[in-house]
Amino acid sequence: MLRGAGALLILCAALLTRRALLEERRAAQRTRRALAAAFEAMEAEIRALLTPFPALLRRDVGPEAGPFLQAVAASLRRGRSLCEAWSGAVDALPLPEEERAALAPLGARLGGDEEGVRAALKLAAEMLRAGYEEAERRRAQEERLTTALCLSAGLLLVILLI
């Protein structure tokens, strides 16, 4: 009886691990989609209304992209340069390291003229959209692989302990 309960708890832990891993991937996808939409909206507003970049950081863009823009704005208020503020906020994003490394240098281009800022925002949105589409293309396969690995590890541990 005790062994059965232990085996059940191990399998539950394996399933919870699977759930946590999949939720991490979903959070990255939500962040990619929200930031891409926010950057596209910012680029359009700069083009149409010539809104200054710091004013764009105060816009309400939702729960996924909002913390990023708020972190950049807060760093700017503390006296950091736009490049440093952008890089610091990018480091906190729930994205893979290679995507964060690709987004970080774009902050240096945001302090220039209107065309440079628009080009940087457009490039960032395109990079995020490409990452989103690639992750969506691989999603089903990665979910199956994650499920198989978590359950296999749980079952192996049950077999070894029983």
What does this protein look like?
The chain is mainly α. The protein has one domain (2-161). 80% of the residues lie in helices and 0% in strands. It has six helices and no strands. The protein has helices at residues 2-49, 53-56, 66-77, 82-91, 97-103, 114-161. The chain is elongated, with a radius of gyration of 21 Å.
β-strand number = 0
Please, what is the oligomeric state?
Answer: single chain
SSE sequence, one letter per element: HHHHHH
- First-residue to last-residue Cα separation: 12 Å
Number of helices: 6
Class based on secondary structure composition and strand pairing:
mainly alpha
Over the alpha carbons, how many angstroms does the gyration radius reach?
21 Å
Low-confidence stretches: none
Overall spatial form:
elongated
The overall pLDDT, averaged over residues, is: 92
* Share of helical residues: over 70%
Summarize the biggest pleated sheet.
Answer: none
Main attributes of the structure:
0% strand; elongated; 80% helix; 6 helices; mainly alpha; 162 residues
List the helices and strands and how they pair.
Elements: H1 2-49, H2 53-56, H3 66-77, H4 82-91, H5 97-103, H6 114-161
Write a concise synopsis of the structure shown:
The protein is mostly helical and 162 residues long. It is 80% helix and 0% strand.
